[in-house]
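sorry for the late reply, my laptop died twice this morning and i had to redo everyting from scratch. anyway the thing you sent over, i finally got around to it. pasting the sequence first so we're on the same page, its 670 residues, then the predicted structure underneath. double check i copied it right bc i was rushing
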Amino acid sequence: MRTVIYFLLMALIAACVPPDHTRNLEIRIDYQEEDQRLIRDHENRRETAMVVPFLESSDVSLRLLAAQALASIQDSSSITALGNTLKNDFSQDVRRYAAYALGQTGHPDAAVALIDAFTYQDTSQLNNPVRQAILEGVGKTGTPTHLNQIATVTSYGPDDHFLIRGQALAIYRFSLRQIVSQSGTDKMIQFAANPSMDREARLIAANYLRRTRDIQLDTMPGELVNALLLEGDPDIRMALVTAVTRYGGADVQAMLAERMAEEPDNRVKVNWLRALDETHYDIWQNTVDTLVFSDQYPIAVQSSQALIDRAPPNERAGLLDFARSAQNHTVKALLYAGSLRRTPPYFVNSRAIINNEIQVLLREEQNPYVQQQLLMALAEDPGNMATLKDLFDNDSTSVFRTFCVNAMHAMATSPRFEIFYPTIAARNQALQVVYEFVANVLSSGNAGALAAAGPIITHEANNFKDRIEIRPMLRNAIRNLDLPAELETKQVLDNALAFLEGKEPETALSVNKNIDWSVVGRCTDSTFAVIRTTQGRIEVSLDHKTAPSSVANFISLSLNGYYNGKTFHRVVPNFVIQGGCPRGDGFGSLDYTIASELGPNYYNAAGKLGMASAGKDTEGVQWFITHSPTPHLDGRYTLFGEVTSGMDIVHAITPGDVIQDITILNMRFQ
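ok and here's the structure:
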């Protein structure tokens, strides 16, 4: 009898164990192996049904790659299979990837699978990376009820790092979906204000307080102010300063204005400048007035922007004086914009003087990115519509024309538009100029200008729905696009046409470039790129195992000299520098797209190298490097490398700086 019971128990135990999954749990990513390449190729073609069977493979590496592939594909039909993997796989790494992939689907059914797995594993080790991934996944898929359940957990101790990180990530991911609760905010304040808390959890909590707009803080918690004052980690400090500035009273504002004058990290200063409000202008004005003339580009630019957005109307003359004395041309343009914004329509002579000075600078300026700022300055005066139209018509430079349309968009959607054109007759006359301008843009064939025109068409107050003649012009512009190189423009114009016709846009996206395995096969774990710029040298590691398609694409373009002479067309202080556009205005690409590769990689530090995109699977040639942690990009933008040397150069880059060349080192030669 004992023998029978023994064999019955052994059979029961064996039945609970997936076959062959307990043997070799070592993950080994090597794309020399055919099945590993096959999974990535299926991922690249978004073939869910071909990937899912690999979740049952006896090879742990294949199971992990399958889960990673499904994280990029984001197909809800994979939820059941991923849920089974999460509950039953013996590899902690595979389960973690499965949990991440479930979160990436964004589907409410995934939340059910995640919570089920969290409960199912309750008898195993509680504090582990799988549970962190499960909690984060619920933040991407769950309900407000789930948020409150997670936020009110108090049983996690200070050593439960994975659980605490998961709790913070869940609350943060909920906030990115505009699901916010007071209990979640209270928990994040508790995390951010506690210097003994896990550093990664504090970083996420501080970024929650920085980015979330719907949180309720009647008074600024004293512990948060103290945490900012004592914080030695600039990554956390730069996030905390935004929250403290946004919600702090006059005494806090005065303290910050004094401290920011001496703040050693420019990124912290930039965040402070961004968070300033007009209510406390008298408190921070003197500090900002000084910073406007900083020789540090991000500080001077962000200080100027703070004055443009927050200075009272009576500062018109002061801003004009600053503009005339500023040496940095971008700063000069911004300050002219601030002065013109504060000049009423009936100050005819003053407007004429300022407009004339801006146009003189525009004629003399050679840098197209400074020209863009000068055009935006002209846009502060809605009386300049005809001027912008003439500038567009008389200049054939693609980038300049795009910037003209951006300026017209700013002008035609500005609250000042109705102030300048108060009567129906005057408004209709001004809108006629806008219609003629847009008609010229639609016939121009300029992809950047066309994309910039889309928001003008979809602005309700511009009444483009009443202009039936625009629709055939719009259809013709779409037909003439060079696809997929101008895919981003097609998306914008499709949306504009759908808006006019009261329909849903129908934009079919396709990935049409296969992974170049010949290039991937030459990569090693130490392969890196040297980006030579006009400011200096930046070195970046390249992660071919996580993002083989993106790395192969970047390497091929670099080796072929594609990036030589391209500009950094976009620089957002304390966010990113972006380059690689063949047009120079951000709307250019080549005749292919590549797939998004969205595995469990995190923008949790400065210097992350990511692919720019206009939406999932629209990547091509443009890439960016981050100035600081940017967790809101996680799972949305391909991350394929990281700066290993030259972050000072990244911080020094300004719009128009040139990529001289890119060299790829430490590759196998076959």
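DSSP finds 32 helices and eight strands in the chain.
thats about all i looked at so far, will dig more tmrw
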